[in-house]
Amino acid sequence: MHSSRPVVAASAALAAVLQLTISRTDLSGHGFAQALVRGLVATLVGVILCCAPNAVLAEEPLKLADSQLEPAKWADLVGWRADDHLAAFAAYDTSCQALRKRQRADRGQISAALWNVCRKAMGSRPQDSNTARTFFEQNFQPVRIARLGETQGFLTGYYEPVVQGSRFPSPEFHVPLYRRPPDLVAVGYKPGSKAFPNKGTRIGRRNEQNQLVPYHDRGAIEAGALDGQKLEICWLKDPFDLLAIQIEGSGRVILEDGTPLRVNYDSHNGYSFTSISRALIERNLIPREEMSMQRIREWMAAHPDEAAKVRAANRSYVFFRVTGLSNEGEPVGAQGVPLTPGRSIAVDQLHEYGTPFFIEANLPIASAKPASSFRRLMIAQDTGSAIVGPARADLYWGSGDEAARIAGRIRHPGRFVMLLPRELDMIEAGKHMPLPVPKPNVTELAEEQEQGKRDSANEDWRRQVWTRKPAPRDCAIGSNSDSERSRDCNREGLSAACHSRSNRQPLSTVGHNRSSNHRLRAVDRNTNNRCKPWGAARRSHRNAPRNAARSRSSKPQLPTVGADNPPATGAA
């Protein structure tokens, strides 16, 4: 990053000259002072304006939302020297052609630095991989990038589907491929000013009260919400063909007469993308281990009615524009340049187009197993509404069945190394980058969990002590136990009946032989009354004579303490 000292020095010089000129006004005359001031101001303001772009770079530190950056060394990048840097340079030079066309006022911090490197690339025409690698090493610095608190990113693949289509609807070609509807609006977007935004703003339509409301979702559009508006670019055979083109963002439609119709992403209806494969897995319609684009196609062909409901779960709907009528070349990415198979990637819009990324991963390229070592320098030339995050990329593989098979298999982690122009000051940028949440100490965490288990066990033990029923004891009347044991037994029986320590009190009037049965019955009634509400206890006292007469005419029932006969449950 360039220093801001030239601007500071120029400003100080301007202030000094103005002060000197004003002090000489009385000596040299008013007209001479004005002429001198005008000339010096014009000269020094020009100096300041020349330095201003570099000053902006110095005053605005590098900021990437939700990202962590870690400077690396070229020698630490596994597979860096073995890559085909000449092929990577060709893709990078394609991005430079688009960067050179941008107005200087439209360039941000990284974009301006990339533009400066592109100027150097104009004079560099490497003839071999080693020369191309030297160019990247001399002009860029490697920086590992990931989401805060993570070390790896996520990779998927995409391709250009080639499908059959027609200019006119028929029983065979009955699925419309739509261009952008005129009533689709985005807050802050002016028609014709730039590409229609795909995220970061509200997208919808205006109702009769001129209020912005959500646009028709996939279910409504497939049911005919856009019929009769003449928005059809062409007609396709299979709903899955349309779904594949919408997921990939581009497609090649071969019309009845053999004319190739190239279409590219233009806009979407404002809803977030929902994975069809995830919906099929969650509904137990396709096992996770069998999931692939071909398997989805087969299932949808076999279950057309249920397939419409699954597709409707993804409310997002993509609209297209025609980009060509030729089989030559590759589709154009969001940067406005043709994509390069195996070198172009789609990234989150927080990144600048034309940024090189070195990606390290093991991918299922040669087979369904992730056994192919992928160590390759890629160029950011495209984007997508489902591509979110600082270390998230969609790898472009070209067109055709083989590209489709490879792209459909890739859903794997990978490490991202972003190549930043050397003029960006990483030390200054690091002062303004957020830090990840500190990881807990494993030892302390284990000790806390163990202490929590002990505390929980102690609490359970205390709860059991105060609520468990007492074990059977020799508390029956007529036993040989002494007076103190009998008193304790009656005290514990009363506690178990009321489940409260406050009801414990000495029962000193209780006898200890068979002639004291009436006393035990009285104690039993009193115990029951103390555990009842006030009204219930009052009714028990009122019925006491009747209960006593009934007890005299029957065999006495002695209270016992045990698990099957809870203590103090009522009068005998």
Q: What's a concise summary of this model?
A:
The chain has 572 residues and is of the alpha+beta class.
Overall average residue pLDDT: 76
Tell me the quaternary state.
single chain
Sheet with most strands: 6 strands, mixed, barrel
Total number of helices: 18
Q: Residue share in helices?
A: 25-40%
Amino-to-carboxy terminus distance? 96 Å
Specify the structural class: alpha+beta
- Uncertain segments are 1-60, 474-481, 494-538, 551-572
With strands numbered from the N-terminus, the spatial order across the biggest sheet is 3-16-13-15-14-17
Q: How much of the polypeptide forms β-strand, as a percent range? A: 15-25%
Over the alpha carbons, how many angstroms does the gyration radius reach?
41 Å
> What characteristic shape results from the CA principal axes?
globular
How many E strands?
A: 17
